[in-house]
Amino acid sequence: MKSITIKEVVLHHINVSLIAPFTTSFGTMQHKDVCLVEVIDESGMSGWGETVTSNEPYYNEETTATTVYMLKEFLIPRLIHKEIKHAEDVHDMLQFVRRNNIAKAAIETAIWDVFAKKNGKSIADLLGGTKQEIEVGKSIGIQKDPAALVEKVRQYVEEGFRKIKVKIKPGADLSYIAAVREVFPDIPLMADANSAYTLADIDHLKKLDPYNLLMIEQPLAHDDIIDHASLQKVMNTPICLDESIHSYEDARKAIELGSCKIINIKIGRVGGLTESRRIHDLCEANNIPVWCGGMLETGVGRAHNVQLTTLPNFTIPGDTAPSSHYWEEDIVTPEIEMNDGLIHVPSGDGIGYEVDEEKLKRVLVSRETITSADTSHPIPS
Fold first, then answer.
1. Is the pTM of this model over 0.90?
2. In whole angstroms, what is the distance from residue 267 CA to residue 114 CA?
3. Are both 250 and 364 inside the same structural domain?
């Protein structure tokens, strides 16, 4: 494998508009600030990653502003002008910083992209992925009433999505799921609670069992694996953990405790592609199916999700819906498209898609180029 040396890193601050507001138990989003991370090696080749945060620390403790700060002050100085023999080495190089996984993933995925391009391979090839197509599910935000939700589900079922995920919260749960199941008794359906419940709701949550859901995702606290184990013991519906799983070690402990039967792997949440693959392999060895969740990514983040999902234990359709379902205009070419519920894995090197410079200009807020390791903070060598 050819090694790379990072010559410079360009931070592209963009603001992108959603086609329609997206509502979860955290709140509603209409626009998103994103920092696209472009890593340029000594030969001038570029690789791309992105911060999959929002402006508020509601999903986890990171925000777009804090990820940019961590990148500039700690992560980029540790990597710039250093020889990187393999992209998977970046994971260990960044372990001197605790957590801040989304910031780490933004630079790590960009390095995977440029490293794969340097070696004439796709990221999927380097990860060991084998799929030529990946199945796609659709995530639906909380709707104003059950009837509105049923119409959204109808639209996406007719478009061919292979799984429907419905966001729920107290007061917008049982009646909503019941309405969908009455009309669509057999579709692959799951509920995502985004930590909106506690063990005090155990009897209420058990009422979801008759609806034959694929899973209920993260019903309890965002940092919990203990109470989820107690809940899983009394629920027939499989519990899927999302926010609780930040690392291989978190996944190992959750599996040993019986906290879940499924794990959602999000590249940003776990700190990058290397840790994502480690969690995938652990789950595969323990017969725990995985799927790739979405973070309202632009085409850059979605492209990384596509590459990761080629690994064999991603047996449940993920949230990597086509760009046109979320953004007024995406920034990659070609746009990520779906046919009959499937996305074809591109054959090109790296992420398989290119950032469209003209589209990027239309959403660009500012751009900053970093060429040195200068920082006011001591960086371990």
1. yes
2. 17
3. no
